[in-house]
Amino acid sequence: MSISVGIIVTALTLLAGEITKLLNVDSKWIPLQNIIITILASIVCIVFNVENMSALETILTCVFATMGAGGIYDLSKLAKNKENKGV
Question: For residues 87 and 17, what is the distance between their CA atoms, to the nearest angstrom?
Fold first, then answer.
């Protein structure tokens, strides 16, 4: 099994999410958390030359992956709120 950018972003997102839950951080800070995850994942992927991509490709992939994860999370919250309201 090879390590990919997606695995690194997923692992960092999971770790950050658990830390956020433990510390009861307000959800308004989630976008900042995603930016920090992007920076950390980009650094890890560039240093270890994951998937033989250029630095720009790696950064853009990490940006899309973390922002996509945040968007999916927001959509799941929205769907859950609609179910609770009976819409």
Answer: 29
Rounded Cα gap, residues 33 and 39, in angstroms: 10
Tokens at 50, concatenated: 């994951």
- Is 73 exposed, middle or buried, given 0-12, 13-18 or 19+ CB atoms closer than 10 A? middle
Token couple for 43: 């650094």
CB under 8 A, 24+ apart: contacts of 39-43? 40/12, 41/5, 41/8, 41/9, 41/12, 41/65, 41/66
The pLDDT tens digits for 18-64 are: 888 899 988 788 888 888 989 999 999 999 988 888 999 999 999 88
